[in-house]
Write a structure and sequence with these properties.
single chain, Rossmann fold, globular, alpha/beta, disordered C terminus, binds CIS-heme D hydroxychlorin gamma-spirolactone 17R, 18S, Catalase HpII,  Chain A, domain 1, 18 strands
Length: 698
Amino acid sequence: MPKTNEKTTRMGADRAPHSAGNQTTNQGVGVANTDDSLKAGKRGPTLMEDFIFREKITHFDHERIPERIVHARGSGAHGYFQVYESLSHLTKAHFLSDPALVTPVFVRFSTVAGSRGSADTVRDVRGFAVKFYTQQGNYDIVGNNMPVFFIQDAIKFPDLIHAVKPEPNNEMPQAASAHDTFWDFVVNTPESMHTVLWLMSPRALPQSYRMMEGFGIHTFRFVNADGESKFVKFHWKPLLGVHSLVWDEAQKIAGKDADFNRRDLWNSIAAGHPAEFEFGIQVLDPKDEFKFGFDILDCTKLWPEELVPVQRVGKMTLNENPQNFFAETEQAAFCPANIVPGIDFTNDPLLQGRLFSYLDTQLSRLGGPNFHQIPINRPLPPVNNDQRDGIHQMRVDEGQTAYHPNALNRNEPHSAHQGESAFAHLQEKVDGSVIRERSESFRDHFSQAAMFWNSMSAFERKHIIDAFRFELGKCTNKNTRQRTVDLLGQVNAELAGAVAEGLGIVPAKARPAQPNPASSPALSIENTVKSPKTRRVAILIEQGFQQQQLDAVTRALAAAGAQYEIISAGLKPIPSAEGKAAEPCQTFATAASVLYDAVFVPGGAAALAQNAEAKLFVEEAYRHFKTIGLCGEAAQLLAEQPNPGADCCPSAGVVVCAESREIRRFADDFIAALAAGRHYQRAGATLAAQPKVVLRKG
Ligand code: HDE
């Protein structure tokens, strides 16, 4: 594995290890006592002249900076990127042209709506922002985990965010779209419908930041050394596949461990399991710009992978945790306008607005125009220009001249030579009347929303229907509920009918069913990579457990790259039937099934089978479709399985071992079930159980 990066080494100069030595003030004066303030007598008042006290408290008083206006809650990681083969036929960007080049990256994953301290597992879009420290300067892909966006023009962004954030009169609810103002915005902004479907889908509840896709969303351009340009969309494909939580689980995790996704990323990297993503591109020749039924500049549309295949052209590996959350993750400033030669923008009106917003927002968030000097934001090549001064200026620029052209300093710094090192904007012809209007080609808001719905598997459809019922159920305004359902009717009658049924309303006339509805199998997470790697298994034990079974399963888990934790009623070592002891690292008080991917209970669990907490643990794992392995008496833990109804397979993913001598086969079956992910078959063909659609006239 290549050494992580020059960036970290370079940042080393700015790192301040918590070293041994004398304490000092910020002026470098030695401090003998930082535990007591200076007083007039041991019980007397504190003195104004106590500069040591004042300096310490003043600095503390100013420790916080404003949180990001959106994407306030996030987690970062360092790593590196390498292209598989040169893309120089498409782009002159160095970092995409040389497979030997290892480009350092810093990535920040985030939620959008919640405050900095909100829970990780809320229903929301996730940010996926990548900063490449290339030798030609910083390049940022500031993307999300969904390929489309709610609005088509950046001027509507403040409206969208004001609607989804807590309502301004009472600052409720936190980190949730399930409230009146968001849905009021949706019904009045039908262009949001496609992304709203993504938001109601399992994609809005990623199991792990290591298990979600990333998308640049906008259409960008590649430009090669001959000045030829192609349209391009960017993708990140997680090597572990795309996996999501279920809603009941996500809500419970928010209480049990609000840092669930953050902890998972941190612990995985610390344990030597890097987060790995392949870099994908969809490339379109300019002559094909108008060949689709949608406008490629419209961010509420994606390019179906079946029409324009995603080519996997490189890999990003995140293998290093930040040393200091504030200095790195919090102060990282991403900006879609940070590009390098070989990449260019398009006229997408959402992108154009973003090109302004990010630099602007950093001015107040990071307190002035010199935030590019903060270590995490510094580019690799030296910065050389006539910009000067400003708040938090860290450079001591020398010399008499700070303007160009100049004769006094022989025009230095001089203009970069056109060609590879200087950025040259693509010379695109622009011709049009000055007009404040949307293009006709941006008018269709429902075809791709319908395609998304058509592409969903049964469990995803059930998830979407339940999510709409939940969100609209939290809306107090009945008119908003009705209008949302009516809009859903423009997407799919079955969807509208099922949501309406849950809300006790009748949908308006729905769009007639299409004869050959379009679908894109790549959109369903059912078709994703499945693997036991890094999956977390809870092992419940009690005094007298079968050591040999525990050993066989833990060996198999380790061989499969999975992880496990031993849980019991207390933390004292638990003796097995064979007399050895195992030490639990969690108890039923500190752990919960929602924090694991699977449960295993070895035999010798007669007492455990009567333990209400252990029962709840296993039953909840069952309800959330997780793999369950039970040996001997442990099978009683699931004796009263919930009956999810007809047409289902209640035992899917439940692996039972009746006899100790079958333990090896059991371990293999358990790992296979763990690799398969969730066992939605337990719920059956849920859509078949949906009520018939009733249509309201008009
Ligand atoms: Fe952002 N967005 N955004 N956004 N966005 C910000 O910049 C904005 C949009 C995205 O981890 C802000 O530094 C406008 C789309 C990410 O630090 C701000 C519009 C996409 C992050 C801003 C959009 C994104 C941000 C707030 C409408 C996916 C977090 C703090 C055109 C392609 C980056 C900051 C991080 C953050 C503006 C829409 C992704 C205010 C005006 C579309 C991942 O500048």
